[in-house]
Amino acid sequence: MPRFSTPDGTKLTYHVFGDGSPVICLPGGPMQASVYLGDLGGLSAHRKLVMLDLRGTGQSQTPADPSSYRCDRLVDDVEALREQLGLDRIDLLAHSGGTNLAVLYAARHPERVRRLALITPSVLAVGQAITGELRRETARLRRDEPWFPAAFAALEAITDGRATDGDWQAIAPFHYGRWDERARAHQAAEDGQRNNEAAAVYGAEGAFDPAGTRAALALLGAPVLLLAGEADLNSPPPAMTGFAGLFPNARLVVQPGAGHFPWLDDRERFVATTAGFLG
Fold first, then answer.
1. Has this prediction a pTM greater than 0.90?
2. Torsion sign over Cα 229, 230, 231, 237
């Protein structure tokens, strides 16, 4: 797999799927190996996907300094990858927790971003609140599912601040538009793909400056796509409306019936939306 060196000497790996003009893809987790993205439901048939394994994940090297896992410090890794690829401007796609890194990159290097696609994004970097009631309201869309009563009880425990490890496991069905064998296998693989030490540092004190980031994003000239899943508790569509409003040139698309991984729930719709935006 191709590798490159970052400014602090850490060697990072990226994986390439497809041909054509490249799209740099940042995984979520946070700090989960990029393998869970697959080829984003077949998006690689339209563009070359450059999937970055963030430092300490996947096949990338573990850094000497664990504090370098902090999200704002990872911006330099993305910039090093752009330079490695010899690109003046980049199309940048990120999922979930990785969208925090993407918006920090766009805020720091707006002139380097051609298009920005944020898939079921996190709102930590922009300081937006998502209430427990909004998450519960979104969850109720799944009330006819056989697993709903137990999962909803666990969600209530989480939103009330009395969660156990078992509760976090119990809400897994909410992350997928269909809680079938494929979704179960995808979810079961997550623990072995995430660097928990890195995840604990990712959002540490100093990682985010929401006011400064919002001010920078208000000046971003690049087109932005926010793709939300209709039933996604992490990124409920009403909250994504507010997120989209932070950009001068953003479009919010809500994928019907989708959870947190929309390329698994309806690959054709996901690819049509995303490829159409990226061009």
1. yes
2. positive
